[in-house]
């Protein structure tokens, strides 16, 4: 198996926010479906998409599935991510790169939101 998962997150100026994405990556890596799992951020944080793809390629990965950790199919998913992936593909034409759908609607999200609404609430 020479396939890797690349989780694409937006990024944030708020300190420590990237830790959530790394926790997700570690869980997916432990599941063993992919030879490797990396994270990339579109803005504010590093590594960026090209850096993460280069890291995977340097490990001998020949197939990458880029999975946007986004709820909506907005401009990042429709334009920015595909454009960045095409740039990387031009540099590494031997690597197969596929773009997964964003998270979008999923019944499991409803359960998470409901659970959080019953949890530790912050009074305003």
UniProtKB/TrEMBL annotation:
The keyword Metal-binding applies. Pfam families: CbiX. InterPro entries: CbiX-like, Sirohydro_Cobaltochel/CbiX. One of its GO terms (molecular function) is metal ion binding. It comes from the Bacteria. Keywords: Lyase, Metal-binding. PANTHER family: SIROHYDROCHLORIN FERROCHELATASE, CHLOROPLASTIC. This is Cobalamin biosynthesis protein CbiX. It comes from Biomaibacter acetigenes.
């Amino acid at each position: 198996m020479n396939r890797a998962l690349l989780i694409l997150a937006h990024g944030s100026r708020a300190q420590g926010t990237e830790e959530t994405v790394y926790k997700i990556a570690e869980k997916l890596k432990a599941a063993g479906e992919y030879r490797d799992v990396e994270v990339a951020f579109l803005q504010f944080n590093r590594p960026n998409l090209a850096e993460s793809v280069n890291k995977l390629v340097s490990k001998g990965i020949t197939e990458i599935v880029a999975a946007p950790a986004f709820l909506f199919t907005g401009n990042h998913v429709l334009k920015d991510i595909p454009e960045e992936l095409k740039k990387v593909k031009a540099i590494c034409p031997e690597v197969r790169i596929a773009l997964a759908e964003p998270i979008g609607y999923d019944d499991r999200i409803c359960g998470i939101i409901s659970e959080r609404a019953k949890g530790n609430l912050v009074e305003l």
